[in-house]
Amino acid sequence: MPHTILIAVTGMSPAVLTETVWALAFPEDKSTEPIVPDEVVAITTTDGDEAIGKQLFGPDRVWDDLRAAVLGESAVTDKRLCLQRPSGAGTIISRKIGGTRQWLKDISNEEENTATADFIIEKLWGYVEKPETRLIASISGGFKTMSALLFSGMSLLGRKDDLITHVLVNAPYDTSLNPRFFFPSQKSQPLVDRDGKIWMAADARIRLGLVPFVALHDLLEKYQKPRSYSELVARCRANVAVAIQSPIEITIGQSRPLLIVNRQAVKLSPREHLVMLFLAKRSKDAQPALDAYGDGLPLLMAFRDSLKPDTAKIRGDKINDESDFTHPLSSLRVKLRKTGGNAERLVSYLPERGRLSLNLPANQILIED
What we know:
This protein is an alpha/beta fold. Helices cover about 40% and strands about 15% of the residues. The chain has twelve helices and 14 strands. It has helices spanning about 15-25, 45-55, 60-70, 85-90, 110-130, 145-155, 230-245, 270-285, 295-305, 310-315, 325-340, 340-345, and strands spanning about 5-10, 40-45, 80-85, 95, 100-105, 135-140, 165-170, 190, 200, 205-210, 250-255, 260, 265, 365-369. The chain has a six-stranded mixed sheet, sandwiched between helices. It starts with a strand and ends with a strand.
């Protein structure tokens, strides 16, 4: 299972964190699989950090109560839902002035906007470059600038399995109540509005909206850490222009363990060679994509057995389970990304969840004897 990080921009109302966690763990649509993040990261200002301290970690211990509600009896030992306090985790937005770093109290001018953009990109980069991680970005809180920049950052650095969310709470729970609303099963149940009317927290409805976005991470070259948000944007624009101008073309040999992507050579292991040759042959023959790796196992075994005796290396050992697809594809993705350039672009054409195929047309694939 991937290590899941909920990263959110927050302001003076950190309830966006508790509401989003609740909506992920208890989805309104019962057919949706619950998600409990391992980590929760709040990107905020100094004022926002103070609000988190008072509202979530004050005498009411709201965050502890939320963990108990979501995790049950195992909340004491379960390491999930670890909220990194901004002041302790370096997630208060800051900017460099001379040789020092200054935390921001507000975001009200162009310099502070630029600092916020650079800060968000730096934080996202630290997570997307780690293997086996999944990001869920909440854009519901904080200044509008923060939400827009987090969305933009996720579009530039996000991957296909990452999510962008927006949490919605029905009225009047989305307004100022006394005490504050955080989640339906909170200990403070009677909540009073400005007119003196009483509302029960348990009656609130929280809905999580998924915001569609184009994840460019697998399409673009970005192995060097970007120095700034503007540099990353410029790099992505240049890479998109190249991608539009040059389609992906691959050459793979039956006896030589080499994959050539637009003149970039990538050496293959025997099992990577077998899987790529299998996928390339199916694409050349206009075979439909398979829905799952399990569906492809008998076909992969039959393909391996059909190979000529002089391809003993590629035939390899016995094929046992889905890992005979997932492991070589995972290692191949690493090789392609390290190679960079057009080779890296091939990653987005490889099989993904729900699609076992090489997503390239036949005229862009050459199989050599």
